[in-house]
Amino acid sequence: MSARTKITYATMRADNEELHRAYERAVEKVRTEWLGHKHPFVVNGEPREGDGYVEERSPVDREVVVGHFARATREDVDEAVAAAQAFFPEWSRTPWRERVQLLRRAAETISERAFEYAALLSLEVGKSRLEALADVEETADLIRYYCRQMEEHDGFQVPMEALSEKERNRSVLRPYGAWAVISPFNFPMALAGGPTGAALVAGNTVVLKPSEQAFLSALKLYEAFRDAGLPAGALHVLTGPGESVGDALAHHPGVDGLTFTGSYAVGMSLYRSVATDRPKPVICEMGGKNPVVVSARADLEQAVEGVVRAAFGFSGQKCSATSRVYVEQPVYDRFVELLVERTAGLKVGNPLERDTFTGPVVSEEAVARFERGVEDVERAGGRVLVGGRRLAGGDLARGFYVAPTVVEAPPGHRVWKEELFVPLVAVAPVDSLDEGLRLANDTPYGLTAGFYSKDPGEVERFLDRIEAGVVYVNRRAGATTGAWPGMQPFGGWKASGSTGKASGGPYYLQQYLREQSQTVIEG
Ligand code: NAD
Question: Distance between CA 280 and CA 259 in Å, rounded?
């Protein structure tokens, strides 16, 4: 059997031995050949050192040095944007079919390197092997999807009506120019590569500023684009802190559009401040406080499995992670009993190990956020039903491990409102489906939501009323997580997203293009 079984976030388990061996070989290779080196960033294909190097360590084991990464300066930001602007005329005039061909090659290159890249994601941010393989494959599939969109729309050139036979009218979508992409730590490949792929295939040039917790993954992603033949002027990568390099890039007057994925606080401040002198497209994909409602007419075992996978997959560090569950009173006790039992049985530990489901959280700060959340619940009279503590036995002492946690908390407590981004889920009984829906919507966020019921009327009611961009009903593979390009477009409503057009969906790519109406009178 080939190792190339397609892994998505909905893959519950993989029995393909060849796949596991390929991943394990890749871990060895990445450990011995990729980690611990110095990495300049890249402008116009040239390595640059900025004003010095910063060390990055692994959340799996703090003794593992991922690498030393150069810190870009304000001048580097200026030069990267200038380089992107300079190459824009050539790249935008490259026939779109050639761009599609080249980006498809980039997607293939990413897929070919899936095991090495996944091993790196495990070591750099702590993803389990299936989550890491899915992140890499999603990156390639996002790029493939945008290539397909370009083709399905025939390069976005639409003939229009005319007043006379001499008049030739058409609508053409054309790229904006130099596009900035700022990406988060939690999907280091997919959320750097997806927006970059969309911007590039549309004909924009790109400056990418990845998360400081995942620099090596971004630089490896860059190599895949480069090795697939992307010209040096089309993509530039700056490493450095968000507050300086990210801020300077986002606000740079030469940047024509921005895609930011990350926290609400940063995203909203950029959304307010980026387009000061002229309007600019600002695509912000932000946080979530994703609810699940469980009806008295649900398959409880299915609901528990979906909640566990969505709350504790990648340690609750998905923007789509389930963090609140409202359960109809008659089935509440049974649901909680099953949830606690299933949670207590999860394998937590080193994500490189085959049977680990929940690995570390990304930083000491995340551990502290988790501990504060638990303490606050207890202080307010809530209860920890399972988990609730740091795990520091044996080798785990060298990383950032916490136990998957289920709590009951008083109404209005901050665990019902704030995105904690750790493996902690709050549960509460509700008197009716209407109350569950009201509480589910009672949040500024609107990213994902889940529902469990066997009653078609209830399902309709949920779909009609829920305020979220991505919703799932009766999904065992993940109550609120696990969207895939071309299948579940992924984007937030309300405070979770700025555009209402979701990535990996049919309306996304157009955001990287602006319309030109062309009228030519012949003769
Ligand atoms: P973050 O906001 O801390 O950082 C995201 C990126 O912004 C990083 O590259 C960071 O360096 C940069 N940055 C930080 N401060 C900046 C500033 N002042 N100016 C410009 N750039 C700045 O987020 P994170 O911790 O990396 O990621 C987790 C967050 O991302 C969560 O809130 C999660 O919900 C959200 N997220 C949302 C989606 C989505 O599609 N809606 C997907 C993934 C993650």
Answer: 11
How far away, in angstroms, is 410 Cα from ligand 1 center?
29
Q: Are 206 and 234 in contact, with CB atoms under 8 Å apart?
A: yes
Contact present, 447 and 287 (Cβ < 8 Å): yes
Residue 500 half-sphere exposure toward CB, CA atoms < 13 A: 2
Please list the residues that pair with 516 across neighbouring strands. Answer: 172
**Phi then psi dihedrals of residue 323, to 5 deg:** -125, -5
What is the CB < 6 Å shell around ligand 1? 182-187, 191, 209-212, 242-243, 246-247, 250, 261-263, 266, 270, 285-288, 319, 419, 421, 447, 492, 496-497
Closest CA to 49 of 70, 29, 63: 70
* The predicted structure's pLDDT at residue 2: 65
Amino acid occupying residue 505: G
pTM here?
Answer: 0.98
pLDDT given for residue 1 in this prediction = 38
Under 8 Å between Cβ of 103 and 146:
yes
**C-alpha dihedral over 333, 336, 337, 343, to 10 degrees?**
180
Place of tokens 């029995």: 15
Q: Which residues pair with 285 in a beta bridge?
A: 261, 497
The fraction of the chain above a pLDDT of 70, given in percent, is 99
Distance of alpha carbon 443 from alpha carbon 291, whole angstroms: 10
Is residue 184 within 8 Å of 286, Cβ to Cβ? no
Q: How far apart are CA 457 and CA 31, in angstroms?
A: 53
Confidence of residue 23 (pLDDT cuts 50, 70, 90): very high
Distance CA 128, CA 354 (A): 8
> Contact, 468 vs 493, CB < 8 A?
yes
Q: Point out which residues pair with 386 in neighbouring strands.
A: 406
Catalytic residues: 285, 319
